[in-house]
Amino acid sequence: MIDFKALETFIWVANLKSFRRAADRLNTTQPAVSMRIAQLEQVLGIRLLERDKRLVAATPKGQELLIHAERLIRMRADMMESVGDRAAIRGIVRLGVSESIVHTWLPALIERVNAAYPNLELEIEVDISPNLHERLLARDLNLAFLVGPTNNPNVYSRPLCSFGVEFVASSRIRFPRKAIDLNDIVKWPIITFSRNTQPYINLRDLFARSGLRPTMHASASLATAVRMALDGIGIAVIPPVILKNVAPGGKLRRLATQVDLPPLNFVASWPTTPDNPVARRVADIAIDVAQKAMRSTTRAPMRKQ
Amino acid sequence: MIDFKALETFIWVANLKSFRRAADRLNTTQPAVSMRIAQLEQVLGIRLLERDKRLVAATPKGQELLIHAERLIRMRADMMESVGDRAAIRGIVRLGVSESIVHTWLPALIERVNAAYPNLELEIEVDISPNLHERLLARDLNLAFLVGPTNNPNVYSRPLCSFGVEFVASSRIRFPRKAIDLNDIVKWPIITFSRNTQPYINLRDLFARSGLRPTMHASASLATAVRMALDGIGIAVIPPVILKNVAPGGKLRRLATQVDLPPLNFVASWPTTPDNPVARRVADIAIDVAQKAMRSTTRAPMRKQ
DNA sequence: AGAGGTTACGGGCAGCGTAAGGATC
DNA sequence: GATCCTTACGCTGCCCGTAACCTCT
């Protein structure tokens, strides 16, 4: 009779289009995967996968099975979630997060998750969004909080929060007049996120449109960027919400510019495969935590200089 | 991780309210059942079954799991049905049938089932409806075609066909006048179904209401009842639709009485537990076959004498 | 004391991993 | 010839069955 193991194996093979990669993912050997698929095909009396080509592809019947199989796996997860004791949920969720989130509501999330699932381990990886996205697609992460949207069919995404981005600088850096524009700013180095991130690209385009080319300092670490700004090395372009935690005491001030920088829209993303069912639950908690955090910062907005 | 075997075991224990009986049903030993339940409880971190009392009972969480488990089992069956090759469906359906059905559309059903599921074996048991009902409840049968309705929560029932019941007799038996009433009939022995069947009870009540007490001959075999009628032993009370097959050539004639005998309403019944999923499919075919058979006999009704 | 569930322990077999074989580009 | 799936084979570990034990009526 068909069991869940066979269905899971089939789902992985169909999604990864490879017996070998599925075997790696399932921590078993490739012949074992062959056997499970062969048995599944035998029980059903039909061919599920086309192996002639370079890439394995599901037959029409295989695609139909895939829908059923994924639903069954999902329903099993729902069942365990609804009748099982949450303390009995053990395991590891590999969670990738953008640094902005580390400095805002990540601690609150960790607390909430630990309360809801006392025996669930969160393995947190801090990295920039493009890297997180890549590792998500490689199924190296079960869940990630990154700058979206990620229009990829292999991951689900749900909005989390939106952080405005602004110019901030140490009070050591002085400007000739109150109203600061790009021409004033460009005299100083701009410190921001890594080269291949969305804010970096946005910024460079912004200056380019005015015919300006500032010196750009890119830091993979947001905290380091803030440190550099504090030391008066340049003007940082970051979400000010992090300052409360990263540079408390108002040592950095937000510049009163008319420049509109696009905000960072964060999403929770997880693979479409029913990989780690708990990831979905952590995402739900994160959405709640993030929106609560948004509301509290919106209610008492920081004043510009 | 939870697998189908554990869920099936749990379903049987919960329904039969006994580890031992579930073990018998699943063709395994009682300790094996204990182990599977214990493991299921451990994975979920909750108690599913209350064993203190004489009868095992599901806890509230257990009842919740039961709903999920039965749905999962049903969905697996649906999946196999919709994507699997029907020729790959092997197994045995133990089918109990009333004799009336044997003599009407059972051969057509067998043909249809064999065509749809070439490797499915039908194990047919002919018996009277009360016995079939009992064996259904004991899960000794996967499916039965019997006189309904069976208002029991442990079996599903679907209507199949309705057979009128009439007085039939050999031409050797002669009556004083054309219009025959109960007083004419009661002079002869009445030959019909077994004592505890619905037609037998109906008949006795019918005569009793007129203050009559005929000699009753009860036969567990409908064919034997017909044989007795052919031999002029008495007047048979049977569904005339069977005569075409059992006594061809019009040797028995239907008596022109004004007496209204209630018809036999046949239903297909199968246990509510997701026991043998194919039973449901056979029932579907039976409903179709029975209704086609009904239509063809209705279109060309037999003439009364 | 007997029926029924749990625990202990030894054995059998399904399924795994290693290694060799074939097919396709 | 490199890559990837299949087949062959020996082995391990899980699960089962037997039997003793415990608990409740």
Using only C-alpha atoms, the radius of gyration of chain A works out to: 24 Å
Please give the alpha-carbon distance between the first and last residues of chain A. Answer: 70 Å
How many DSSP helices of chain A?
12
Strands of the largest sheet of chain A, in order across it?
A: 4-3-5-12-6
Order of helices and strands of chain A: HHHEEHEHHEHEEEHEHEHEHEEH
Query: What assembly state would you assign to the polypeptide chains in this entry?
Result: homodimer
What does the overall shape of chain A look like?
Answer: elongated
Largest interface: A-B, 28 and 30 residues
Poorly predicted ranges of chain A: 300-305
What amount of the residues of chain A lies in strands?
Answer: 15-25%
- Report the strand count of chain A: 12
SS-based class of chain A: alpha/beta
Question: Largest sheet of chain A at a glance?
Answer: 5 strands, mixed
Percent range of helical residues of chain A: 40-55%
Mean of pLDDT of chain A: 88
Which features does this protein show?
homodimer, alpha/beta, five-stranded mixed β-sheet, elongated, DNA-binding
